[in-house]
């Protein structure tokens, strides 16, 4: 009987023969994830599409409001992506995934069946977009699902850097991005419609990882997770399909 072993010698900064640490790839998320080895990532912090875009503009009085973020925000199915993330994440690894209100049931089905669901965090935005029609409540919240990969792992065995009770509420209160941190095109419009604040990303990364750990984001956008990792001395891996966002992300990290 013969046994064949696959041996890989990794150099510093290299996670897999074709995937290097601290580098964003311009690739589809599933193709990228399938190129990564099993149990190779310590933490996942990612912001997949919310499926909230609308094909037609909203007309209200003299206003014509565009709610189409792009083709990427239509028909996203989290199931195959979460399956690949689970494979590449270490058993004691954790995930923080941003999602919309309508997506919560679908994600909860996934995480309660095959993961260890831990909490639903609420990002309360102090400056939400106004409700033009004044016929419903203002959407001031977005959500972040927190889970551990292996259902059998005890919570005390994972990296969880407690920051004190005042800092560990499951509600994060901060404004949606404005000011200098918000990337803008030459015409003044936001480069990416859903760019997340570094303050939130850094908080999640600090809690769920240690220095030099590997953090994955397979929906890098304009590279905010990568920037947060660099500022916290974590390694990052990830990808972004849209070439414009990919280029902007590389500008930020380089």
Biggest sheet descriptor: 8 strands, mixed
The outline comes out as globular
Would you identify the CATH architecture?
3-Layer(aba) Sandwich
Q: Indicate the low-confidence ranges by residue numbers.
A: 1-12
Instruction: Quickly count the domains.
Output: 1
Strand order, main sheet: write it out: 3-12-11-4-7-9-8-10
CATH class: Alpha Beta
- Rg, Å, rounded: 19 Å
Number of helical regions: 6
- Tell me, rounded to a whole number, the average pLDDT: 87
* Extended strand count: 12
SS-based structural class? Answer: alpha/beta
How far is it from the N-terminal to the C-terminal residue, by CA? 51 Å
Order of helices and strands: EEEHEEEHEHEEEHEHEH
3D structure, described in words:
This protein is an alpha/beta fold and about 250 residues long. It has an 8-stranded mixed sheet with strand order 3-12-11-4-7-9-8-10. A two-stranded antiparallel ribbon has the order 1-2. Helix content is about 25%, strand content about 25%. Helix 5 links the parallel strand 11 and strand 12. The relative contact order is 0.19. It contains 6 helices and 12 strands. The chain has a single domain (about 30-254), classed as Rossmann fold (3-Layer(aba) Sandwich), CATH 3.40.50.150. The longest helix is centred in the N-terminal third of the chain and has 11 residues, at about 80-90. It is globular. The model is unreliable at about 1-10 (pLDDT under 50).
């Amino acid at each position: 009987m013969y046994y064949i072993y696959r041996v890989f010698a990794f150099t510093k900064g290299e996670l897999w023969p074709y995937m290097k640490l601290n580098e964003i790839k311009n690739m589809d998320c599933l193709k990228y994830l399938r190129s990564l080895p099993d149990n190779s990532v310590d933490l996942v912090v990612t912001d997949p599409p919310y499926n909230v875009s609308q094909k037609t503009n909203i007309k209200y009085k003299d206003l014509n409001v565009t709610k189409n973020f792009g083709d990427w925000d239509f028909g996203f199915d989290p199931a195959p992506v979460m399956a690949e993330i689970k494979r590449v994440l270490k058993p004691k690894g954790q995930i923080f995934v941003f999602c919309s209100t309508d997506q919560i049931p679908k994600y909860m089905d996934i995480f309660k069946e095959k993961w260890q669901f831990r909490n639903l965090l609420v990002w309360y935005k102090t400056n939400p977009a106004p409700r033009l029609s004044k016929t419903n409540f203002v959407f001031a919240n977005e959500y972040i699902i927190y889970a551990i990969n292996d259902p059998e792992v005890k919570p005390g065995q994972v990296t969880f850097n407690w920051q004190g009770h005042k800092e560990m509420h499951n509600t994060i209160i901060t404004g949606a991005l404005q000011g200098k941190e918000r990337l803008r095109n030459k015409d003044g419009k936001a480069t990416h419609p859903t760019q997340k604040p570094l303050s939130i990303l850094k908080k999640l990364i600090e809690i769920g990882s240690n220095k030099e750990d590997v953090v994955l984001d397979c929906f890098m956008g304009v590279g905010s997770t990568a920037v947060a990792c660099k500022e916290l001395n974590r390694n990052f891996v990830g990808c972004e399909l849209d070439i414009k966002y990919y280029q902007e992300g590389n500008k930020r990290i380089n």
